[in-house]
Amino acid sequence: MTTELTTAPATRRPAGRAAVIAAFLWSLTAVPIGLWQLLDPAGGPFSHELYQPTFTLPGSVPDWVAPAALIAAGVLGLLAGRAKPALWPLTALYAVVFGMLLSTVSPISFAGYLCAFFLPLAILGIPVFLARGTAGRLIAAAAVVALMAVLGFTGVIDYAAVGDFLANLGGALADIGAYMAVQVWVVAGGGIWAALTLSHVLGGREGRPAPEWLAPHRAARWGRVASWIAFACALPYGLTRMTWLTPWVWVGGPLESTQIDLGTRVWGLLLGFAALGGGLLCLGLTYRWGTRWPFWMPVVKGRPVPPKVAIVPATTVAALFTFVSVPFVALAVRQDALEMVWAFPFYVWGPALGAATLAYAIRRGVVEAR
Question: What residues pair up with 211 in beta bridges, in sequence order?
Fold first, then answer.
């Protein structure tokens, strides 16, 4: 059964043009990165000590083959980005190879710690955001500053230790900056080619009626199911980390509270709260507060939520989770840490969040089959 949605295939949609441009630029950068690895095998981005490939080439394969293949993929990508919609399997192949086979767990680790790092800052900013008027925001900001000063004066927060931590963190980021940038580039490439593939699949129907499942009322149904699945996927890790607030700590198994230091406990709890908060946001893709700002947000309450405010971050996270699922499971198997497979169900979480985001975009009129 199909809907009555039909359109002409005359022009390329803005989203499609953006994906084509992104694929072209990404392919351009593949050439110098491949040359870097080819000309500096010991110091290249794929020779870093942190690099743990999901799949490795046989030892009999010369070292120059992989970077040469990357250069060739970049050159071919300059043409593949302009391929006709009927050639979407080629762009899908790029998405799978770079997004799932060449990616590592480094980007998800980096993203998780980045979210955990900024979570306290976001919490401190909530009173300022919720305050009414300029005067109210100034008062809220002054109250937050005063609270932080009191916590520092009483020794609850050791700002000297915080400064040392930030200095060490900055040094660590400087050491892995180039490596991490390339790892993010690999995952970003997977996302770009996946977006181009989706644009081809949805936009290459040449006037044929769109399938019934793409109709907004049907998307609302399967999108709600996908949203709840994505929310459920956030619970194992988030609730496990919440046990760190109790005497019954779980870190891949029962652990005495005295065996976990304060720094690790703080990072774990922040990561746990970030996971649960992200899971809650998944539900916003199917409920009213995801389309109109809720009543407790005084400045924008009742106004429509700009679709991209939800779609862009949700799509980014969905792509990241989906792409790292294969290397993450491979890492868990190699380290004989199978509890990571159920604690981080990225293989379900990513696709479910992606489906929920697509349904949200359909309901908001951002995506439609053409």
Answer: 2
Q: What is the rounded average pLDDT for all residues in the chain?
A: 81
Q: Is residue 136 part of a domain?
A: no
* Residue range 195-230, pLDDT digits in tens: 899 888 876 555 566 677 778 888 889 999 999 999
Count H helices, E strands: the chain?
A: 11, 2
Most confident of 149-153, 197-201, 233-237, 364-368: 233-237
Which residue's structure tokens are 């490939």? 53
- The answer to whether 141 touches 133, Cβ cutoff 8 Å, is no
Residues 6+ apart with CB under 8 A from 268: 241, 244, 251, 260
Q: Containing domain of residue 361, as a range?
A: 211-370
Asked if the structure places residue 334 within a domain, the reply is: yes
Q: How many domains does the chain have?
A: 1
Residue 7 in domain = no
pTM: 0.76
DSSP 8-state symbol, 4: S
- Decide if 5 contacts 178 (C-beta within 8 A): no
Residue 288, class by beta-carbon neighbours within 10 Å (0-12 exposed, 13-18 middle, 19+ buried)?
exposed
**Closest CA relative to residue 311, chosen from 229, 351, 366:** 366
Integer Cα distance of 356 and 32 in angstroms: 36
DSSP string computed for 85-113: GGGHHHHHHHHHIIIIIS--SHHHHHHHH
Structure-block tokens of residue 175: 């050491």
Q: Which amino acid is it at 185?
A: W
| Whether 281 contacts 246, CB under 8 Å | no
363 found inside a domain: yes
Distance CA 357, CA 286 (A): 9
| 73-115 residue pLDDT tens | 999 999 888 878 888 889 999 998 888 888 888 888 888 777 7
